[in-house]
Write a structure and sequence with these properties.
heterodimer, A: mainly beta, seven-stranded mixed β-sheet, four-stranded antiparallel β-sheet, 11 strands, B: mainly beta, six-stranded mixed β-sheet
Chain lengths: 114, 117
């Protein structure tokens, strides 16, 4: 099975712009979660989507949003970029059904905000 | 509040040494899950192990072993006979069971392990 894929792998943006990151989960996985990783704050949960619905959300401002499509692919969007949004954004997928399943991570998108 | 503490920021060992990475967690839930992930320089988090709160049995997988002790809220990870390829950042994580959700992973700050030849 192919793993979780994320595009693009690297992005450079300037303050005030917006950005969209994409994540394709492992085939058959219906849950997609997003995490932000920075040197200062470490790994922090952004949100989780399952069957096109957001079912869990971390403590991030409204500038961070996401969505999931019927094929389970997910996108996250950050509007009005700030310097502090520079980070590695990781996507994780899991089957998402009954019970608890571990999450499998993609390689991440490294966003640099200038 | 939930919290994961990895007190060791960096550890450096010589190949073939054994090394233990410490993880202490805090949670009020009785049902929760603990994880270890490895992050090599490429950046991708690699799943190593999951433990649920009702299973305190220790686990061994090759050179890796995990010691889960609810009494001390610890979930430590030992690498026996370390190898250069073990060099990475290791994260301990906690997730609380939530109906209808995978829950979110609460990560520790990570321990950077350097194994020198």
């Amino acid at each position: 099975k192919a793993g979780v894929t994320q595009t693009p792998r690297y992005l450079i943006k300037t303050r005030g712009q917006q950005v969209t990151l994409s994540c394709s989960p492992i085939s058959g996985h219906r849950s997609v979660s997003w995490y932000q990783q920075t040197p200062g704050q470490g790994l922090q949960f952004l949100f989780e989507y399952f069957s096109e619905t957001q079912r869990n959300k971390g403590n991030f401002p409204g500038r961070f949003s996401g969505r999931q499509f019927s094929n389970s692919r997910s996108e996250m969007n950050v509007s009005t970029l700030e310097l502090g949004d520079s980070a590695l954004y990781l996507c994780a997928s899991s089957p998402g059904g009954l019970g608890y399943n571990e999450q499998f991570f993609g390689p991440g998108t490294r966003l640099t905000v200038l | 509040a939930q919290k994961v503490t990895q007190a060791q920021t960096e550890i450096s060992v010589v190949e073939k040494e054994d090394v233990t990475l410490d993880c202490v967690y805090e949670t009020r839930d009785t049902t929760y899950y603990l994880f270890w992930y490895k992050q090599p320089p490429s950046g991708e988090l690699v799943f190593l192990i999951r433990r649920n709160s009702f299973d305190e049995q220790n686990e061994i997988s090759g050179r890796y072993s995990w010691n889960f002790q609810k009494s001390t809220s610890s979930f430590n990870f030992t690498i026996t006979a370390s190898q250069v390829v073990d060099s990475a950042v290791y994260f301990c994580a906690l997730s609380e069971a939530r109906r209808g959700s995978q829950g979110n992973l609460i990560f520790g700050k990570g321990t950077k392990l350097s194994v020198k030849p």
